[in-house]
Amino acid sequence: MSFFSPMMLFFVVFPFLSFFVFGMAGTLLFRKHGLWSMPLTVLCLLVIFMFCIDSAAPDFIVWLISFPLLTLLAAGVTLWIKSLY
């Protein structure tokens, strides 16, 4: 697998994007709807990626569930920490 292959980018770059950019920064940017809109954005991106690259392999369904949950967790923790200060 080369360094710039789509699957390498998916397993290395997308989890960090999902957690930090969509989960934390997206929640702070979209204050009113950040908690539910950011996991929905990640889910839509994963569905697009699934149909373009992986064509709905059974192993991909695990990532389809776990990345939006990771984003929802990051958004919830971000809102909780923000409410403390």
UniProtKB/TrEMBL annotation:
Alphabetical UniProt keywords: Membrane, Transmembrane, Transmembrane helix
Domain of life according to the entry: Bacteria
Segments crossing the lipid bilayer: 35-53, 60-81
Descriptive protein name: DUF2651 domain-containing protein
Protein's organism: Bacillus halotolerans
